[in-house]
Amino acid sequence: MNRAQKVDHIKGWELRKGKGELLRHLEGGKQLTRADAIAAKCYDCMGGYPEGAEDCRCEDCPLYDFMPYRVGGPRKTRQISDAQKAKLRAGAAQRIASQNKTL
Questions:
Q1: Stretch among 7-11, 14-18, 75-79, 94-98 having the lowest mean pLDDT
Q2: Which residues are CB-neighbours of 24 under 8 A, at least 6 positions away?
Q3: DSSP assignment, residue 33?
Q4: What three-state secondary structure class fits 70?
Q5: CA atoms of 14 and 47, how far apart (whole Å)
Q6: What CA–CA distance (Å, rounded) separates 64 from 67?
Q7: Quick one: 74 exposed, middle or buried, by C-beta within 10 A (0-12, 13-18, 19+)?
């Protein structure tokens, strides 16, 4: 199946999260965000969710934590320690200070 045939085939699938993103990718539209790319891949992998929006339960998949219909919802944020937060704040403060010196 070539790309044009795949686009035509997907257009017949159910409207769910990821359909528009997958079609935009296949049709060469603007670049997808990371979240849009994940939704598109899940939509493709699930065959357009023909049984309705459901969890794929493919826990071995590296994208599973971000799956749009995952039971419990997609993982939204990464967990970082207080030490990591402090390091990020210090780095941001240094960047701001160096930018202010150049002005």
A1: 75-79
A2: 30, 32, 36, 40
A3: P
A4: coil
A5: 9
A6: 5
A7: middle
Give the amino acid at 84. Answer: Q
pLDDT (tens digit per residue) in 7-57: 999 999 999 999 999 999 999 978 999 999 999 999 999 999 988 889 999
Query: What is the token pair recorded at 35?
Result: 């979240």
The span from the CA of 10 to the CA of 102, in Å, is: 52
Distances (CA, A) of 87 to 62, 80, 83, 91: 27, 11, 6, 6
How far apart CA 43 and CA 23 sit, in angstroms, is: 10
pTM value > 0.70: no
Q: Which is nearest to 52 in space by CA: 11, 23, 16, 20?
A: 16
The two tokens of residue 55 are 């969890």
Half-sphere exposure of 59 (CA within 13 A, CB side): 1
